[in-house]
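Chain A, query sequence.
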Amino acid sequence: MSAGSAAVPAARRRRSLAVLLGVAVLAGAGLGTWATGTWPFARQSYCWGAWEAREGDRVPRVLDETSQDEERSGEQSAPPRKGRRATCSVTLRDTGGSGYDERVEAEVATVPRGSKERRGWLRTYLDADSAPLPDGLPGLVGRTRAVFVLPEECDSADGLPTAVTVQGAGTSPLTASMGTEGQVADLLLSLAGTAARASGCAPDEPFEAGSPLARAGADDGLTAQGGELCRIPGLRFDLDKDDHYDAGVGAVRDDLQTCSVLDTADVRNPVRAALFAAVSRPRLAALFTGVADDRSPGEGWRGTGEVGEEHGLLTATCAGRPTVFFLQLDAYLAAHADPDPRRVFAAAANSVADRLGCPAVAPAS
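Chain A, predicted structure.
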């Protein structure tokens, strides 16, 4: 065999080896891409796999398709475990010079143990801007925040409920919105299901809303002196037109009624000033566990709880169901309750009890 004829197979072998090496490199790159959950094999996922980045009408902006001037990132703690706090977030940043960012922050944790901290937490997540989930699901959804209470099997060892919360944040109030209420509900229910499964306490049936999501009620300006908040008889405060408070009517249902008030003295940073709620949806009512002692507030009160100058909580049977009546006030509203905070709470609780068709739960005067 000549030297020239021997060189041809050797050259072919070298080319074949190069092709095989190239294929191996491409395959390795593809496998690496798949492993990290990016194109072309899978979508990016966040919050322990609860949320995926994708296109669609039900996808909130932070998880929707990005432009070349945007980048998305996510952070997460260890997965949820019963009795332990877990957090995650997704951030969408502009890289084209405008400097905005949109962020969704989520937490899976038992509700705060301290009474003062819990009351502040309740004032945030039972806000009138949030509407209750349909079909009796234990949650509320707004455009900037949402909450879902996991089943009793997910409670802490000392009986505190575990809540899944989702909240929007960003460089402006506009970017704090997470999208439509329907988009936020999808985020919340998907995360709640993931958290319950990871914690080993998921029910047999998934958390799904079959009925349409209702919107929160209309605003109700609080400007008239001596006006009643949220059209609830007895919830009266001696205020005038120079007081910077805005009241909002939330849900008005048999198992949930909410009314909240914002202090808008600083229009760029309004502060939650008051919340009144009547709750009988069982897992939402569990959010009040441990806030007050299990004893009567005094003569004439039907049920157990406590009533102070800036807060009141009463649990009583109403229309055959344990119902929680709750009031939290800032110091200014407490000082201007008409005639005083204790009687304002009593009158408001009685007016809601009457609407529900049950006997008075508080003294008449």
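Confidence is low (pLDDT under 50) at residues 1-41. The helical segments are 3-35, 115-125, 181-198, 282-285, 331-335, 341-356.
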